[in-house]
């Protein structure tokens, strides 16, 4: 899952990014309004964490920008302790949740997980597709109740496929989802094929149907096998 943190307090931002990266998220950071506005215009995110008070503008306008763009990202507003009006305004214009400074990183993580489940998987604790089950808290994957051991990238790839069933996903979109803004600096996207091949092999070995289809000249699609 890919997140954008919009926060100008360097120490807090570093703490949040270190914690969430350790939890398995891909984290990007913008420390002012202009950088954040550019990032949400250029890249797609699963969740955006937005501080309201920023150099160069207000985080509320970033919320408005995301809503104008029809972005699918969940939005959590980070507000100061006594700014009730800002919290209310943030929710009214389209934020999904808010958290007040100071906050515990474990609480932030729980809110992110809950928000992503609500927006991507209809709030379900377990993500189920046919014989595949993913426990979203423990991130354990099983096929026909047999545990499948996946790498972090393979797990992210599987979740991305299931969240985008029947859509053609280009190699570029997969690379951006798995590596964030660093995908632009990669010399080749051939490694995407390797990750997909390994994921497909591990699932099939446990008796899973082959849901990952190549779409010639375009990318990949996660869909029911053709009869």
Can you walk through the features of this model?
With 227 residues, the protein is α/β, with parallel strands linked by helices. It folds into 2 domains: 2-121, 3-Layer(aba) Sandwich (Rossmann fold); 126-222, Winged helix-like DNA-binding domain superfamily/Winged helix DNA-binding domain (Arc Repressor Mutant, subunit A, Orthogonal Bundle), CATH 1.10.10.10. It is 42% helix and 24% strand. It is built from 8 helices and 14 strands. The chain has helices at residues 10-22, 33-42, 59-68, 84-92, 105-121, 152-163, 171-179, 190-205, and strands spanning 2-6, 26-30, 47-51, 53-54, 57-58, 74-79, 97-100, 126-129, 132-135, 140-143, 146-148, 168-170, 212-215, 219-222. A 5-stranded parallel sheet has the order 2-1-3-6-7, sandwiched between helices. A 4-stranded antiparallel sheet has the order 8-9-10-11, with helices on one face. α2 (33-42) runs parallel beside α3 (59-68) and α6 crosses α8. The radius of gyration is 18 Å and the shape is globular. It starts with a strand and ends in a 5-residue tail after the last strand. The model has no long low-confidence stretch (mean pLDDT 89).
